[in-house]
## 1
Amino acid sequence: METAVKRIGVLTSGGDAPGMNAAIRSVVRSAIKMGIEVVGIRRGWAGLINGDIKPMDSSSVSHIINRGGTILYTARSEEFRTEAGQQRAANTCKLLGLDGIVAIGGDGTFRGAQALSKYGISVVGIPGTIDNDIVCTDYTIGFDTAANTAVECIDRLRDTMQSHERCSVVEVMGRHAGYLALYVGMSVGATAVLVPEEEYDFKRDVAEQIRRARLGGKTNFQIVVAEGAASAVDVGRQITEELGLDPRITILGHIQRGGCPTAKDRVMATRMGYEAVKVLAEGKTNRVICSNDDKVFDMDIEEGLAMHKTLNPEEYEVMEAMSGT
Ligand code: F6P
């Protein structure tokens, strides 16, 4: 492909997600194929402000497609929220001769990219977060791995809950969104799932579901709680008060953010990385890479972030039907 773009930077920002390394690899190798030089920016937007760079060539991304975390490190930068910080980051781009930046991360990362584009720097965002909460895309890199990790953990919990005939309350990540909890809850056959998108009533949505499951013959119960909906400790306490059970509480926490990416995350990261470089090479800016119906495409960041994302109503309906069984 003929392009005026000669050199680009790539960075990861915000919470890491399995598959970010696969995306970095794809950006580097796609760019090299298109005759574009790539500079790695370490520690996200903070690194761009400080000129914290790492030269990248094809071999610098060898053996990382299967690795969790991010070889470029990541950070959340307060300074980049200020105009002075953004100006310093733009100056780094000018000093290094960067024609564009590929920023891999969540919506905070994209807002940063948007801010930088106002200084005349071309930017493209790749969605990478286990929360899957980016409005314009059905899929974010890391979601599938995090969901599978949580499912594996809850399957293990179920073994011991079954032996002891206990109730388990598990808190999963997702920040303000319930996509991870809903997906995981459905995958493990949870007795009840609480998500922040739907207001819950403890008696109706937890106690009654456990009661129904018990009346149906079950003697162990898995309750999945999205961190944005409630605290697993509080839910556990209410279960004791209302039902006299002695639940065990597990907060999965950052374990969900690590580990080898699944094949799905590697493939999505590779496709999105390629698309991001192609978009920059075509001279576009202020874009975000999205995936819907297994198609990968780009969209204006502003437009993408302004959209409203809701839980899939069909999935929620099915989950409700499965509760208390
Ligand atoms: O956005 C990813 C995420 O893991 C959320 O699910 C969680 O709420 C948050 O990051 C945790 O952030 P930190 O790594 O700063 O503790």
## 2
Amino acid sequence: MTDDLRELYQEVILDHGKRPRNLREIPGATRTAEGYNPLCGDRATVYVTLDGDVVKDVSFVGKGCSISTASASMMTEAVKGRTRAEAEALFERFHALVTGEPAAPDAPELGKLAVFSGVSEFPVRVKCASLAWHTLKAALKGEDAPVTTETGGE
Ligand code: ZN
């Protein structure tokens, strides 16, 4: 990655960390789930409104470091309007990115989410970046138990 690109990426993360998108509750959401990353203290509650199999609306509330907030913010933008299967495929792709693993051959394009590629160099930050996604996955599955990054794997 060039220095210019790295700077641009940092700006995107800073921007979303400072001014998170879709930071709100959804009254009457179809699904909600709570996530907690004890390593950093990040907390996120994800709200999803499903229309059939499509994520019609998605939002989050929570407190955490700028990486976790930026990731939650960008997650909501990335999965809105997608089907559940597409959202889960995107999560798999994103997870591969932040853990530095190769993507599956049929993986979806990450678009702006690629800004998190630098996270793979900082293992502690992987959980910050993936918390909102784990929580989304739990919400889509309809799991009631709170998610923690310590029992749910990476
Ligand atoms: Zn964090």
